[in-house]
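Saturday, quiet lab. Running sequence design on the structure tokens for the scaffold JK sent over.
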């Protein structure tokens, strides 16, 4: 489709395959059009290939979900690139070269250059310097002199880099990043240890979860997540297309919490009914709901669940961005989940019958849900101890880990008591 003079255009790629064009009309309205001959993976579950053109109200939520939630960072980028921070098109034109999943945004002038790429070395000392600056300056993740440009969604400051042969690089062009680095946050002490522990705990209980480590760069302890939307192939590193559940449902990031009229458990279970491994993914998602209930994972909103697209369809992505709020509270009385169980968000109000009603609302076996709640609650004290020893041996803060193990052991006992209630 040839652009008119009154509109701006970005070419949209999935990996190295051009799939369509993103248009910004003079009035600011956006429109995405698949290329006429494109028949591959859709840009989003919310934008099926059967419809070749998708309008402003459909494409805009998808784009905003690719960008960070941090308004300070968006404002800084706006000043740096001389773009209005409320203009998602303009922001992605500048930093949309490496996004979540396989998506890449390229200006028509850079389309030939986008077929090439490379790796710029970065020292551990420089990584440490940027990590130290992130909390007060979220834009420190990248330098204006960096050739590579990336966008990572979410509220927490982070850096995306490429690890290769034990060295670190800033990739550019067609070359993807492989790891996400998250520094500790002063308002949530031990968050790096927390997320690493919870991912290992989830994996030990049989859930699919992102691989993580904790590493120190020039004295700065950092949580590293290996990107599950990247895959090694003979010809090199390959991006796997991913989108979060807000994108799949066509909902903006401002509605990521169910209490803000965002997605709930039945909405996501509805999407997973179309998964290429429907039964397994629906069970895995319910297992994740049970797990987050047990660990007080109060931030498990719709953007923290994703699907991975393949030519055979889509599947539920591994768990990521999971952490327990237990170490940061004095009482669980008022703690709320991001998605309600039956009618309730407050953990103290949730009873066995509310899990049963939730299962029924999703056309899911309540027996299977309650069995998994009992299984997890029974196993968690032992597995928490094992994961605690393992993570302390990795050099994590033993006092914080021991406190977390104690809190989650108590949560397990409370859940088992819940199951015996009539």
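Result came back. Writing it out in full:
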């Amino acid at each position: 489709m040839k652009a008119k003079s009154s509109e701006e255009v970005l070419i949209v790629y999935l990996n190295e395959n051009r799939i369509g064009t993103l248009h910004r009309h003079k009035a600011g309205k956006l429109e995405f059009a698949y290329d006429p001959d494109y028949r591959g993976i859709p840009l989003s579950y919310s934008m099926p290939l059967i419809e070749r053109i998708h309008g402003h109200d459909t494409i805009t939520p998808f784009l905003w979900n690719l960008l960070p939630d941090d308004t300070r960072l968006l404002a800084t980028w706006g000043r740096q690139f001389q773009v209005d921070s409320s203009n998602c098109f303009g922001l992605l034109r500048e930093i949309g070269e490496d996004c979540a999943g396989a998506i890449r945004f390229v200006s028509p002038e850079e389309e030939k250059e986008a077929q090439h790429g490379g790796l710029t070395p970065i020292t551990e000392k420089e990584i440490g310097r940027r990590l130290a600056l992130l909390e007060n300056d979220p834009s420190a993740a990248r330098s204006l002199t960096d050739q590579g440009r990336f966008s990572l969604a979410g509220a927490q400051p982070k850096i995306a880099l490429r690890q290769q042969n034990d060295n670190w690089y800033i990739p550019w062009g067609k070359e993807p990043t492989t790891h996400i680095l998250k520094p500790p946050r002063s308002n949530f002490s031990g968050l790096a240890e927390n997320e690493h522990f919870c991912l290992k705990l989830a994996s030990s209980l049989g859930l699919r979860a992102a691989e993580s480590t904790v590493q120190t760069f020039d004295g700065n302890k950092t949580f590293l997540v290996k990107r599950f939307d990247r895959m090694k192939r003979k010809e090199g590193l390959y991006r796997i297309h991913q989108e979060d559940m807000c994108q799949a449902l066509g909902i903006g990031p401002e509605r990521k919490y169910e209490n803000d009229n965002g997605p709930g458990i039945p909405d996501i279970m509805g999407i997973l009914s179309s998964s290429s491994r429907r039964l397994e993914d629906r069970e895995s998602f319910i297992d994740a709901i049970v797990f987050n209930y047990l660990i007080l994972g109060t931030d498990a909103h719709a953007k923290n669940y994703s699907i991975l697209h393949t030519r055979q369809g889509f599947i539920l992505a591994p768990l990521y961005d999971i952490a327990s709020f237990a170490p940061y509270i004095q009482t669980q009385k008022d703690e709320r989940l991001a998605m309600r169980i039956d009618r309730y968000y407050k953990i103290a109000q949730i009873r066995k019958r509310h899990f049963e009603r939730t299962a029924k609302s999703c056309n899911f076996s309540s027996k299977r849900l309650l069995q998994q709640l009992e299984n997890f609650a029974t196993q968690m004290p032992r597995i928490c101890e094992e994961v605690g020893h393992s993570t302390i041996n990795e050099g994590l803060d033993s006092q914080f880990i021991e406190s977390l193990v104690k809190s989650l052991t108590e949560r397990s006992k409370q859940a088992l008591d819940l199951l015996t209630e009539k």
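Notes for JK: The chain has a mean pLDDT of 89. Residues 366-393 form the longest helix (28 residues). Ask whether to fix the surface positions before the next round.
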